[in-house]
């Protein structure tokens, strides 16, 4: 992908550069949970790989917003709804977004640029979990 503005290069590091590590970590957690439930590791691994691949290919093919696709596979009061509820309670989205901002800021720092960007720029004073006065 080509970008006209060089500023997007540091931003893209938080998505494409480090993104595979986020996906691999999610895959690892899903595989480990499958093993914990009773699947042999090779079967849990195959299920997770095909789930990731199928979901990605479907999203790319339909070009629909991920929220629409997620809603399409989430039945009211169903198993997926229960799982999504736990992910939201665990601040799944916030953790992912905070990790991506941390990556972006570190990329700026490594390039000797001002990393004072985005939410919670001053992590000791304006983050909602901060205990500082």
Percent range for β-strand residues: under 5%
For the secondary structure, the number of strands is: 0
In quaternary terms, these chains amount to single chain
Helix content: 55-70%
Mean pLDDT across residues: 90
Could you give a short account of the major beta sheet?
Answer: none
The number of helices is 6
Mind explaining what this structure looks like?
With 133 residues, this protein is mainly α. It is built from six helices and no strands. The longest helix has 22 residues, at 41-62. The mean pLDDT is 90.
Would you spell out the secondary-structure blueprint of this structure?
Blueprint: H1 7-17, H2 19-37, H3 41-62, H4 66-72, H5 79-89, H6 92-110
List key phrases describing it.
6 helices; mainly alpha; 0% strand; 133 residues; single chain; globular
At a glance:
The chain has 133 residues and is an all-alpha fold. The chain has helices at residues 7-17, 19-37, 41-62, 66-72, 79-89, 92-110.
């Amino acid at each position: 992908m080509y970008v006209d503005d060089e500023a997007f290069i540091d931003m893209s590091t938080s998505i494409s550069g480090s993104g595979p590590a986020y996906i691999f970590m999610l895959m690892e957690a899903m595989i480990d949970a499958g093993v914990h439930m009773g699947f042999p590791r090779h079967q849990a691994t195959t299920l997770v790989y095909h789930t990731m691949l199928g979901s990605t290919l479907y999203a790319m093919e339909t070009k629909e917003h991920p929220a629409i696709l997620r809603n399409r596979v989430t039945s009211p009061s169903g198993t997926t709804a229960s799982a999504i509820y736990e992910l939201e309670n665990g601040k799944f989205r916030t953790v992912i977004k905070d990790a991506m901002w941390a990556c972006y800021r570190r990329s700026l720092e490594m390039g000797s640029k001002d990393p004072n960007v985005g939410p919670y720029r001053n992590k000791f004073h304006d983050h909602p979990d901060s205990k500082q006065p």
